[in-house]
Amino acid sequence: MQTLQLNIIPFTSSVKEREFSFYNKEGEGFYPIKWKSLFEIMPDWMEKNAQHLYSDFQTPNGALVTTKVDLSKHVHFAQHYFRYFVLEYFKTKADVVFPNFINDIGVWFHDATQDKEQYKVYKKFTIKVQHGRVSNGFELVISYDGTSKVLKTSLKDLVDFPLDKLNWINCNGVLHRFEFMPPEYKQDMGKLFPVLSNKLKPLFGIPADIPVFENRYPKYFKHIKWLYDNYIKTPAFKAATQISVNGFHVVPENKVFQTSNSSNHMQFGRSKIDVNPHFGMKMLGHREVKTTQVYAKVIDVRKREAANTIVLDL
């Protein structure tokens, strides 16, 4: 049977307990923990009816209390801490680092071998911290997201450029949406470099990327293994995380299952079968998607009901 290896690296905390400083008010970059997790009796200095204390995982600066937290018991708080650790760690390693909209960590590395006269090319990764999905502990999910091009010319030097066409901006190694960027950042346009979307590329005479339809796994694995070998499997990273000696998680053979060859079949009408909705619509002669949806919805519901009965104990 084929070996099934996942892009997930199990890990534990390098120490069971860590010391954190706490405040009674939330702020940007602060994460909560219930005070009952730290004290048996509510401290006098806490506000009445308060449920949480907050930490930014940094050196205390006017904190109300500094105490140890058992990360193996307080998993939710520990996940916040490990996300903070990953973010701070890669700030000194990668060229662009930022938390995305679901608080996973985006990490970009400049690949000078692919640069062109007008732009730089960056290899993109996403690192997610989770708990108990395929193992009994914490896990790092590493994804390779392809490449992005960033213009070498700053907004300061783009004369009469239509700012309403901008989306993502690289500013000092952090990505921001131009529309929501803090006003003080826009005071120095010389530090703002547009990420080239397919909508922006024609404005600079740069062709849009053409998708490549091939087996992406070999290239994908090559890149995530590069990240693992150079930045995860290192003494500096292990200062906070004790990663699995086996690296990427391999699913035991008795936990690997197979679907049937017809599991991706979709039924259109009463007897038309295809794996592609576009071709299924053509067989029915439908000109509008909503017409086909009447037929496809019934099949989709049945598939969901069948899928919900499957339990995979990894």
| Count of helix runs | 4
* Mean pLDDT figure: 87
Radius of gyration: 25 Å
Distance between the termini: 17 Å
**pLDDT < 50 stretches:** none
DSSP strand content: 25-35%
How would you describe this structure to a colleague?
This protein has helices spanning 75-91, 217-232, 277-284, 289-307, and strands at 4-5, 8-13, 17-22, 31-34, 52-55, 65-70, 96-99, 105-110, 119-131, 138-151, 168-171, 174-177, 192-194, 241-243, 250-251, 266-268, 272-274. The protein starts with a strand and ends in a 7-residue tail after the last helix. The protein is globular. It has a domain at 261-307. The strands form six sheets. A six-stranded antiparallel beta sheet has the order 7-8-9-10-2-14. The chain has a three-stranded antiparallel beta sheet with strand order 12-11-13, with no helix packed on it. With 314 residues, it is α+β, with helices and mostly antiparallel strands.
Break the fold down into its secondary structure elements and pairings:
Layout: E1 4-5, E2 8-13, E3 17-22, E4 31-34, E5 52-55, E6 65-70, H1 75-91, E7 96-99, E8 105-110, E9 119-131, E10 138-151, E11 168-171, E12 174-177, E13 192-194, H2 217-232, E14 241-243, E15 250-251, E16 266-268, E17 272-274, H3 277-284, H4 289-307
Antiparallel strand pairs: 1-15, 2-10, 2-14, 3-6, 4-5, 7-8, 8-9, 9-10, 11-12, 11-13, 16-17
Keywords:
4 helices, single chain, 19% helix, 28% strand, 314 residues
Characterize this entry briefly.
The protein is α+β, with helices and mostly antiparallel strands.
